[in-house]
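Hi U.,

Before I forget, here's the chain from the pilot set. I'm dumping it here mostly so it's searchable later in email.
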Amino acid sequence: MYKFNSSAWEWKSSVQPKIEVVALPLQSEPDSDIQELTQRANKITRDIDSNSITKTSSEQQLENLLSNLLKYGVLIASAVVLLGGILYLIRHGAEPAEYHFFRGTPSKFRSPTSVVEAVFSGSSRGIIQLGLLLLIATPIVRVIVSLLAFVRQRDLIYIFVNLFVLAALTYSLIGAYY
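Structure:
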């Protein structure tokens, strides 16, 4: 039904149309490859978080052993160096420093056996050298323990990697003498 509005000179409808707003859900398809990759990454993260990847008890034991070996090896070596440094300063701290001439390392500190002999004779420099030897020996012992663990597990790839690392460490220590 239409009515004529004389003041505005127009026709108006007395019946207003009904307008309904309907919200339709969007489809869950990803709009791009990035969203699809993000969804996959989130799924993988959820899988990892739900402990789908776990270590065996022997792997956990080896990891703890190597961690403690490095931690305590460095702590013991540092304590020995500190003790030697304190003893050295007590005995020689008041002596004037003589930097006019270069004096190399005495021969009694050039091999591990002579360092041990110097420690037993009460030399504070020998104690410092022993701490440094312990510090050097710590990663070498770690590689040897790892090698033995991988030999026990018969994991050939890690056996060869550890043998290579052990050879490189040995050459770096002994190669200077030949």
